[in-house]
Each structure stands twice: as structure tokens, then as C-alpha cells.
Amino acid sequence: MSEISKNDTYDVFCMDGNSVLTTNVRALLSGKNISTMPIRSFLSPIHFLTKDDPVHKAASTIAHYRIRAVPVLENNKIIGCVTAKSIIELLSKKDNQWIGANLILSANPITIKSSETLATARMLMLSKKIDHLPVIDKNSIRQVLTSYHVLQSLIPEEKLGRRSLGMKKVGNLGARIGNMGSTRIPRCLPSDNLNTIIRNMLDTNTTCCLVSLWDKLQGIITYRDILSLLAAKIESEIPLYVVGMPEEQKNVDLITSKFSNTLKRIRNVYSEIQEARVTIKKQRSGSKNRREGMYEVSVRISTPHFAPFIFKESGWDLGEVFEILSQKMRKKLSKRAKRRSKPSIRKIETPGLIESI
């Protein structure tokens, strides 16, 4: 913990033979006395990068493992790491005005009341694998509690680092949340673009942004949501990008191949398809949500002359979800192609008018 606090970081890494082990702030929450417990019990293996790996691989690794940095190895030594913040800084220099907050937010975020205990917050963070909990006080979001805030309650006061300056030491996990947390969290509207969101997060040096409409919380955007935009390109005749494909998913090649073939068939009748972007999210549950584990898939079809076509579908079986989406796309775009190919009535009648004159 001293290394995390001293270096103002979320993740730490070490070598174990040919393997890279890591731990982070959220993992440390599972300990009861982390100042005396051996670090070994908190370590787990992680994928690493080389200097030749593309940026999207770093982004995918960070998003999949819900971490904020991934190590870079050379000659079996850790020579550095790629951080989520550094990738987002690169994204801030691109034109992202076409990406609205409503396209990337995590809807219905898990929240917690200020009257709840830190122990409850810790349980939610560990079970749901999240680092941000918007805190509700009198029906309003006053602050956001992070995993780092909760970790402070597990550390003796003399061990607290520079990031905790100005924070009141909470004695134990049985304490109420109260005013604990950060109030400097940026907020945005669902219609705000990604450039604005990234700029606000970088300016406030925060790792999340709350999406609100008429003072009602609509969702939350974290580093992970933004990094998911850096999709892996699938080799296909039509440019196809896929975000969030689960690493444990079986038959990935079959699913993407069938979807690619669907795009190819559709372009035979609707030739203006330029590219397709697929976003896959796995639903996480709150206390009143029974859809945990369900896949939510969104497909964005880009054309040169019209607004993008958006198709969405949810289901427990990813293969079936893609099949339903393929049917929806074929039906809608084929109909549109037929309407466009109909000869105009005005054009049909024009020769007759000319002859009558």
C-alpha cells in the first residue's frame, strides 16, 4: 500500500519467474489488516505488452481486467506500463464530437446511501468489481466514493500517504459514509460529446464522470467505458470493429465470421455501408436488477450520406443475439434499398409532359 500511495497509482506489478503478477486498490479491499498481511495473497497473474503491441491491445487488456495500467516487458523485465489516463490523453487529441455520452455510459449505476457503512461499500466494490459509488444524500448525489477512499479505513493513520491529505481518518469499516468521498466529480448531459467529457475528467484529474438529466442520474462514464471505444478490427471485406468481446467467449471466430458475411450480403443490396462497429456489454446487477450476465449488443452502421443506423439487442447467448441483430439489419436495410431503387413518379411522368407541350 505504501508504494501505491507514494507513487499515486492504482496498480502495482512484480515479476515471478516468467510471469507478471499484479495487485491494485480494489484487490486490497479484500484484506482486513493490509499493513501486516503478506502481499503475496493479493497478487494475481496478468497479461503484459511488448513495445510493438498496438494501443488497442493495451486498452482491451485494461478494460477486460478492470485495471488502470498494463505492464510492458522487454527481456523478461518490466520496463514501464501503459496507463488508462495516457491512452485517454491521446484520445483527447482526436475528433470525438460524434460520440455522445449516451453511447458509452454505464446506465443505472450502482449507488449507495450516505447512511450506509463503509463495510457495505467495500462489499459492493468487491462483488461488482467497481471502483466508484455515487453517494445519495436526501435524494441527491453529493459525492462519489472510490475504492481508494474505502481503503483508507483499513490503514493505520500513520501509514496514510499524500493522496489522503485533508481527509479525516475513519476508524473502521463500521463507520458511516457520511461526507466521505470526492465532490470534484465532473458531470455531463447525455448529449455532451466525448471531447467535452474527457477534457472535464482530465482537468479535474478524476476517473469518472456522472451523466445527469434534470438532476436525475442517468449513468456513469469511467476510464473503462472510454477505452472500450478502441475496438479491435476484425479482418473482413467491410471494416468491422468489435468492442468488448469476452475473452472467455467460445466460437468467437464463428460469430464474427457469420456477422461479417451478413454485412457482405447486405452491401450487395445496400452498397453505401462504409463500416460497422459492434459494442458488447455484459449487464451487471444492482439490488433490484436480475439481468446480471446478460449481453447487451449495439451495432452502429456508418454510411456517407445519412446518420448512422443503430441496432440493439440483449440476450443470454451471444451467438443468438448476433443472429437476431443480423435479421434486423437485413430487414431494415433491404427495405431502405428497395425504397431508394424505386423510380420517381415525377421522373416517369416528365417525358409525357414534354411530349404534350
Structural class: alpha+beta
Shape: globular
User: Which series of helices and strands comes N to C?
Assistant: HEEHEHEEHHEEHEEHEHEEHEEHEEEHH
Residue share in helix: 25-40%
Rg, alpha carbons: 24 Å
Describe the largest sheet.
5 strands, mixed
Strand portion:
15-25%
Strand tally: 17
Uncertain stretches of 5 or more adjacent residues:
162-170, 343-357
Mean pLDDT: 82
Number of helical regions: 12
- End-to-end distance, in Å? 90 Å
Q: Biggest sheet: strands side by side, in what order?
A: 13-14-15-16-17
Explain what the structure shows.
By secondary structure, the protein is an alpha+beta fold. 33% of the residues lie in helices and 25% in strands. The chain is built from twelve helices and 17 strands. The strands form five sheets. It has a five-stranded mixed sheet with strand order 13-14-15-16-17. A four-stranded mixed sheet has the order 6-12-11-10. β11 and β12 form a beta hairpin. α10 (252-269) packs parallel to α11 (318-341). The longest helix is centred in the C-terminal third of the chain and has 24 residues, at 318-341. The model is unreliable at 162-170 and 343-357 (pLDDT under 50).
